[in-house]
From TrEMBL:
It holds the Pfam family MerR_1. The keyword Repressor applies. It comes from the Bacteria. This is HTH-type transcriptional regulator tnrA. It comes from Anoxybacteroides amylolyticum.
Length: 99
């Protein structure tokens, strides 16, 4: 599914406390995944805000960590996914294709 900036799933409105409750991860774990560049919350005045897409990503990260996948490997996978999406977007724009 392609990202729609105006879709509710991508709006950064959820506090870290709520994300912690939704995912079962501690706030410390969530901040650690941010430090490892696996998640990118919006920050204003020291407050982190997450989207539902971020919540899904954190749950996926937690599942992979339970399976023993190191954070470096998760980061490599994320980087690969982002590159593929960017390339697809560039190709779609160049050829005026719809996603």
């Amino acid at each position: 599914m392609e990202r729609k900036d105006d879709g509710y799933k991508f709006k950064k409105v959820i506090s870290i406390g709520v994300v912690s409750e939704l995912t079962g991860l501690s706030q410390r774990q969530i901040r650690y995944y941010e430090e490892r560049k696996l998640i990118f919350p919006d920050r204003s005045k020291g407050t982190r805000k997450y989207s539902f897409d971020d919540v899904e990503r954190l749950m996926d990260i937690a599942d992979k960590r339970e399976e023993g996948v190191p954070t470096q490997e998760i980061r490599r996978e994320l980087t690969k996914e982002l590159r593929e999406k960017m390339l697809k977007g560039q190709m779609n724009a160049h050829f005026r294709l719809r996603g």
